[in-house]
Amino acid sequence: FQTEVSAKAAESGANASAQFAERMAAAGGRRGAVDTARADYLASKAIKALNDIVIEDKVSYEEYNALKAWLIKVGNDGEWPLFLDVWLEHSVEEVANAHHEGSKGTIEGPYYIPDSPELPWNGTIPMRDGEPGTPLVFKGQVRAVDGRPLSGAKVELWHADNLGFYSQFAPGLPEWNLRGTFIANEDGEYEFTTIRPAPYMIPTDGACGQLIEVAGWHAWRPAHLHFKISAPGYDLITSQLYFPGDPHNEDDIASAVKPELMLDPHDNPNGEGEIVEYDFVLDPE
Ligand code: MBD
Ligand code: FE
């Protein structure tokens, strides 16, 4: 596979920035999402927090200029989506979904694409011939918090390949590789096959990688499957599911692991690879 040698942080960053701009434009640019009083309050508080750090920690001109150069580089590398989703989105998600009684969700991250191909019951997610990775049969049920099965619920899945690359962000992959939409049957059940993803390292050759290196951090996320679960009249759940024993479940760079999001895969008695069950419970709107 070509991707390993040719993927560049700036390329996936530029793609992530462009994708986000497109989705914001499609949503009407979120005009009016922040009114004047709220903008004044939040921006003043954020600016004061930074000024307090400068004063308290006696930030030098060298440090100030390093920050300025780095912020410019984040933009040039297209890494604002990556930076924000790794280091801030988990708190936004916590606030947004605190009232939910159904399944826990977690952050979306920078690599979601809407409208992935709809696949039949028991279908296999699009993948290349010989796609590396252990086959994984994934089945479960979508229900409402009152226990009613949600027939026709949409289960969108996207994940990285065995080398940690997402289609439409890294070059050289088929457009919908490892992206698909499954529709729950009359009992709210779904079943499909994919491959088990590998632990994921965020791009290290851009501005975010530079910060990680300079601060002596690591760039790893545990292996994960991304989901969006939706049904008319219910709050959409954005989630990620993880695998027990992954060395990065305890120190995810994106702080997006929760105990409720841990899978329990077993050897598949009816085939090769593994099988796992996981249900999603949605809150009414
Ligand atoms: C990912 O694949 C991801 O899920 C997050 C949250 C950040 C960077 C890359
Ligand atoms: Fe991811």
TrEMBL record:
The keyword Iron applies. PROSITE patterns: INTRADIOL_DIOXYGENAS. PANTHER family: DIOXYGENASE, PUTATIVE (AFU_ORTHOLOGUE AFUA_2G02910)-RELATED, INTRADIOL RING-CLEAVAGE DIOXYGENASES DOMAIN-CONTAINING PROTEIN-RELATED. Its cofactor is Fe(3+). The gene is catA. It comes from the Bacteria. Residues 138-166 form the Intradiol ring-cleavage dioxygenases domain. It comes from Gordonia caeni. The keyword ATP-binding does not apply. Keywords: Dioxygenase, Iron, Metal-binding, Oxidoreductase. Belongs to the intradiol ring-cleavage dioxygenase family. This is Catechol 1,2-dioxygenase.
